[in-house]
Structures are given as C-alpha cells and as structure tokens.
C-alpha cells in the first residue's frame, strides 16, 4: 500500500536526512588510498551515535553493518571489510539513518584518489541520471516517467541501467511501496501524489546491466566484471516540486 506522509513525518525524515547528508560530507574527506571500508563503517557508527541517530539497516534481515560498501564491480550491498582501497577504485557507501523515528536513505559513489576520464564519465552520468529522475518526481507524473528519464539518458551515454534493484517508498520502515525502477516507459505505473516519499537511486554499469549474487547472499556484482556506480536521494513529492531530504548542498534548510 502506498502511503502519503504527514507534515510532521516529513519533518522528521528531513532531520534524519540532514544527519545523513553531513555524514556523507565527512566520508568524502576520508576516502583515499589505504583507507578501508571497515574503517568508514566504524566512523559512521560513531558519527550517528554522536548525533543521537542509529543505522537503520544494521540488523535488517540479519545485516551486520551500519553501511553497505560496494567496490568497483559490486553493484550494491557490499560488506565493509579490511581490504585497503587503492588509487582509481570507486566505492559506493549506502546507508539508512534513523533519527528519533524518522528515516532517510542515501548512497554516494566516491573515487579513491584520482579519477581517470573513464571513471569521471561513469560517475558524472550516474549522478546526472539521478537528478533527471528527480526532476520527474512531480504531482501527476507516473513512476514510469522517472525510470524513462534515467534509462534514456544513461543508455544514450553508452551505459546500462541495473534492473534487479530499484528505488522504493520509505517511511516507518526502510522499504515501502511503491517500487521505483530506474528504467521504464513514460506514462506507466502509479501516479505520484503530494506527500509521497521515495528513494531514487540509479545503479549504472559500464557494461551489461545484469547482476549476479555473491555467496554471502547479499552482495550483487556485475556479470561481466564492469564497474557500477550509484547515487541516491530520498525525496518528497510536494506542490512546489520534488524536495530532496538528503541534500548535501544546503544543510541550512
């Protein structure tokens, strides 16, 4: 069932989103050759505790960590680990923050050290695809409008869009209806209404869009070993247009 959030619920989620956005800003300073995703995960635990928040996915279906940390060909749900990041790697840090019952979800892909032209294009296209999807999250549009905007842009740029994992509604729990695919047709799917809170989180691959699962039952990676990037925001559909609850650019709001 698709639910529309009250003003109070949205304010709580926005407060969580501000903490999450600030945490990502701090992670950006940490990501460099020699650091480990386990160290990043430990930092996130400490940061959230200091801000009276908790990592919502820790314990979710048995998941053990505060973050998901996916490196290079890992699409999503990579485990934080002691492997040192190397120059030229890309790493996606994904987390859900719970602040006094308000939830917010955001993933960001970081370059370790210096990015070559190929890496820079992958990240630029993925981030641009996210915002093209967000632009479609307006009252009266349909879910397919979001996916179509993302897919058409990413494929025109020579990349593929992961089909096996989607965005979602979010509220009292991490995953709520509706699913938000990052591919699709204009004018298809449920209609967007004021007060809906959703995540838009395109996962864009350099090669084939298909994924395979690791033996741990969590981590998905590309079938051909190509790299995958992801950027994600939690947004609310408003009369004034989409409002980003996890915006890193302006934490004063």
Automatic annotation (TrEMBL):
One Pfam family recorded for the sequence: Peptidase_M24
UniProt-annotated binding residues for a divalent metal cation 1: 94, 105, 232
Major enzyme class: hydrolase
Entry's family note: Belongs to the peptidase M24A family. Methionine aminopeptidase type 1 subfamily.
Summary of the function given for this chain in its UniProt record: Removes the N-terminal methionine from nascent proteins. The N-terminal methionine is often cleaved when the second residue in the primary sequence is small and uncharged (Met-Ala-, Cys, Gly, Pro, Ser, Thr, or Val). Requires deformylation of the N(alpha)-formylated initiator methionine before it can be hydrolyzed.
GO molecular function: initiator methionyl aminopeptidase activity
Complexes and interactors: Monomer.
Reaction catalysed by this enzyme: Release of N-terminal amino acids, preferentially methionine, from peptides and arylamides
Species the sequence originates in: Gracilibacillus marinus
Keywords: Aminopeptidase, Hydrolase, Metal-binding, Protease
Cofactor entry: Co(2+); Zn(2+); Mn(2+); Fe(2+)
Keyword RNA-binding carried by entry: no
E.C. numbers: 3.4.11.18
UniProt protein name: Methionine aminopeptidase
Tagged with keyword Metal-binding: yes
């Amino acid at each position: 069932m698709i639910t529309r959030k009250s003003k109070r619920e949205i304010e709580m989620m926005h407060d969580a989103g501000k903490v999450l956005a600030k945490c990502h800003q701090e992670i950006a300073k940490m990501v460099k050759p020699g650091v480990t995703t386990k160290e990043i995960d430990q930092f996130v635990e400490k940061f959230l505790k200091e801000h009276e928040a908790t990592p919502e996915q820790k314990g979710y279906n048995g998941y053990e960590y505060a973050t998901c940390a996916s490196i290079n060909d890992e699409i999503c749900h990579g485990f934080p680990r002691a492997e040192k990041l190397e120059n030229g790697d890309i790493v996606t840090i994904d987390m859900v923050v719970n602040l006094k019952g308000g939830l917010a979800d955001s993933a960001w892909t970081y370059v370790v050290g210096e990015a070559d032209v190929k890496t820079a294009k992958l990240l630029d296209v993925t981030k641009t695809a996210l915002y093209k999807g967000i632009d479609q999250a307006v009252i009266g549009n349909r879910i397919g409008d979001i996916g179509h905007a993302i897919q058409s842009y990413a494929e025109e740029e020579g990349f593929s869009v992961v089909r096996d994992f989607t965005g979602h509604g979010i509220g009292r729990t991490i995953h709520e209806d509706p699913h938000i695919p990052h591919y699709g047709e204009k004018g298809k799917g449920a209609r967007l209404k004021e007060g809906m809170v959703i995540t838009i989180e395109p996962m864009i691959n350099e090669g084939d869009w298909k994924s395979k699962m690791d033996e741990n039952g969590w981590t998905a990676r590309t079938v051909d070993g190509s790299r995958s990037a992801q950027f994600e925001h939690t947004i609310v559909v408003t009369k004034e247009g989409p409002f980003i609850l996890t915006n890193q650019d302006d934490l004063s709001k």
